[in-house]
Input
Amino acid sequence: MDDDDYPTCARTYATLLIYPNAVDPAMVTERLGIEPSSWQRRGEVIPRTNRPPKVAELSGWFLTSKSQVESKDSRRHVAWLLDQIASKSAVIRSLQETGCTMAISCYWLSKDGHGGPTMPPSQMKTLGELNIELWFDIYGPYED
Output
């Protein structure tokens, strides 16, 4: 059962990461019919807030729940991403066959230093069917 006030979480969001190899990130957008939250082309300069720009080492296409889902439950964030792509399984498989690698990264900041995110079998099944790996980037807690 999802819990938007997940008591052990301070903050979370999930990001679909597509590394298109030889496929241009614009082609990923065209094929999926989804505007990414951000993207980058290998060799191009990436401007960054409060940090010097850097040159992209890899091309990438990224869709994040960061400003789309207001919840401390990572299941809600992953569900939002899956809602965006689940009906596009044939396109996803086609992109993977051209060498695109895909994963969902879930940022999770602990509130108290215990507990952790969970993933229901239904989401794991959908991720498996889409051949998309899920990994957690877990931090905290931090002192204010």
Notes: The chain has four helices and seven strands. Residues 46 and 54 are 5 Å apart (CA to CA). Helices lie at 25-32, 74-85, 89-97, 121-130.
